[in-house]
Amino acid sequence: MTYISSLWFLTAVAVVTFTIVGRIRSSWRKLPPGPRGLPLIGNILQLRGKQWLTFTELGKKYGDLMYFSIAGQPLVVINSLKVATDLFDRAKFSDRPRNIVASDIMTGGMFVAFAHYGNAWRHMRKAAHEGLNKAIVNQYHPIQITEAVLLTADLLAEPGRWVSHVRRTAASSIMSIVYNRPPTSEQDPSIKKINDFTTRLTRAAMPGAHLVESFPWMLRIPSKYAKWKRDAEGWYAKDSSMFESLFNSAKGEESPSFAATLAQAAGRHGLTEHENSWLAGTMYAAGAESSSAAMSWWMLAMVLYPDVQKRAQAELDMVVGRDRLPTFADYEYLPYVRAMVKETLRWRAVFPGLPRRSTEDDVYNGYFIPAGSILIANVWHINRNPENYGLDAEHFNPSRHLDETGQLASGLSGTKEENHVSFGFGRRICVGRHIANDTLFAVIATLLWALDIERATDEKGAPLPLDADGCIEDGVVIRPLPFEVKISPRFSEAQAIVERGRELLGHY
Questions:
Q1: Burial of 152 by CB count in 10 Å (0-12 exposed, 13-18 middle, 19+ buried)?
Q2: Which residues are involved in binding heme (predicted)?
Q3: Annotated binding residue 430
Q4: pLDDT tens, 117-131?
Q5: pLDDT less than 50: residues of the chain
């Protein structure tokens, strides 16, 4: 190569290099707006506790797409329904961030809600959809009505233990749907074991729970020198045995259950028995916690909005009357009660927003989103955006889901007809949402038909303190702060009809 040609070659390389570097720098200069962080740690100190409220407040200044740095890790927060659906409907934004302890070790990558977007996840997702899609969930209606009646009877007998009764109902309902178990008590060993699993898992998944998430090199430490790793591996072995036992006990049953459906379709979906057993366990763990939290938020709404309660009861009186309990045969004729289900999930989302991870660089509306970014849709704010839900968006108002004729209105675009985003977005929208909606309908219709739910008072009749805006961050699930309620039969025959219904069901 001559001197001149060598010079031209080096010049060309330099031009290409500077062009690439210039483009990279240009892209990074077009990051979404966001608050300035501190050296090294970035915005960590700004994101402590109730992050959804922080994101909502900062969104007033920085907009619907915001950028944060978490010790160098890009974090993109979305405050808009349109932006969330635009991004999360695409495959490159359908992955989950790596969670070494909760996902990789404690569940062996089998917990589908935390699993990475790939072939294994697609097979498990497809199998779950087949067992829980809208066309077949009506086979679980008898279970949901049974549990609603049992809950009503329990609340009439022991109103002071309403939180415990709600938790039992949610756990027992999902246990029956997933494993074809009869209604069970809080003391049922299987329920206790799975609830313990759920608690361990959600706490392990919380940011900052384990140093290895920030320092992945710690994964190379042998188990005998790392208790956190040894414990996680031990729980994976124990929980695998538990889920396999539950799955095997249900797969041969003739009565419908999610586990039986998985077993029948195992060959078609290419899932092993181990994978199927974990998929069934995942559905229970995700469903029980979220259902009980949603029921608790609904109870709070009934205390805070007595006029809403009365309107739903008036609809029930007109459609059902007062000489029988509601059933799913009444479903189409109870639009306000169905709207109450939607409003419960919109008003207080039990998941503030599960994170996604981008797998490729992307540019959206001129802003650069680098590969490997963590993305969070601020579900809390999106569900309460006045532009979509009106100036009273922070209040509990089921009427917002009805049209001018009093029937359910079509949902906002991008919400899969739910008219809220509490079930998530795109390819990772909650696969059990139809079960969740039907369970809430059965509980709300039955309780409001039989009961009046009011704010508790002291011995002098003064209302007890109530923190309507407080919450408990229980792992990844958000619950209301503890509160007391006054529960009483709504009319003189209600308790007797509930007891007869309970006797006819043949349980307890």
A1: buried
A2: 430
A3: yes
A4: 999 899 999 999 999
A5: 1-25, 508
